[in-house]
Design goal:
This protein is mainly α and 139 residues long. The chain is 70% helix and 0% strand. The protein has a domain of 95 residues. It has 5 helices and no strands.
Length: 139
């Protein structure tokens, strides 16, 4: 379907995809900061640690073969990568939930933190979908 479109229209659509990706990431960051600033409590920023740790196993252990993460594998490094990435993802949800349970943050901050997390996940899924059929790769 995309091959039938003229080149200028295809480039415009790809630019729109990148803009949507940038808007999603920016929206997630804004919600993260608002969850702290509106309630004058900066404890929810602890989830930033998990956001930084989340891609690290993928960068260190998966290498350039990202397709092995989506399939069954007997490779112990790939299995360790899946485990550590999953633990970081659960930690991104658990930290705000624990802070709410301990009475450190309120319901509004919890809702904004979880909304920020799901917007980041949506941005990652859009990036993966966009990366599957992009014309930006040089290889």
């Amino acid at each position: 379907m995309m091959a039938d479109l003229p080149g200028y229209l295809r480039n415009c659509l790809h630019t729109g995809k990148l803009a949507l990706l940038a808007i999603l990431v920016s929206g997630g960051i804004v919600l993260q900061i608002l969850a702290c600033a509106l309630y004058n409590n900066w404890w929810p920023m602890l989830t930033i640690i998990m956001y930084v740790l989340l891609p690290m196993p993928l960068l260190f252990f998966a290498g350039s073969d990202g397709s092995s993460l989506l399939s069954e594998s007997d490779n112990s490094w790939v299995n360790a990568t899946k485990f550590l990435t999953g633990a970081s993802a659960v930690g991104s949800i658990a930290i705000p939930a624990i802070l709410k349970h301990a009475g450190v943050i309120g319901w509004g901050a919890l809702a904004m933190e979880l909304s920020s997390y799901f917007i980041f996940i949506l941005a990652i899924m859009c990036y993966i979908r966009m990366d599957d059929n992009d014309d930006y790769s040089f290889l």
